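Changelog note: in this version the structure field was regenerated for every chain. One regenerated record is shown below for reference.
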Amino acid sequence: MKSLLMAIALLMLPVLSIAADNGLKTVPSSYSVAETINRLETLVKEKNITVFARIDHQAEAAKAGLIMKASQLLIFGNPKAGTTLMKVAPTTGIDLPLKALAWEDADGKVWLSYNRPDFLKQRHGLSDDQLKPLVPLGGLIEKSAK
């Protein structure tokens, strides 16, 4: 019986490691949720990247009579680059435009999360060349939290 349980556990390891990798990169922010997203919005606009929307989840929850910790989402991208990717792999449209989420945890610590470019590559079967326009954006996103 012990051997059987060990064999099952060993077989499950690859599944567990895949499940644990949800493609998100989360970094701590030195700023409030609003300031983190303000900083990211400024950096994005300086690079002539379009900001499509900014969603304040906490404010929307309050409108519904609910209370939640601060959480804001910035949706941004470059239509030329995004369209090129969507023509090659239409499923990228589920992940584009790009999104970054600043959020506050139960202890009041602020975090910034986004989809890792390598995860998008794997998820949509993109080549390194196709992914090139997205790679620098991880650094840009993280810069807003420092």
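Spot check on this record: The first helix runs from residue 2 to 20. The helical segments are 2-20, 33-46, 57-63, 79-88, 117-124, 128-131, 135-143.
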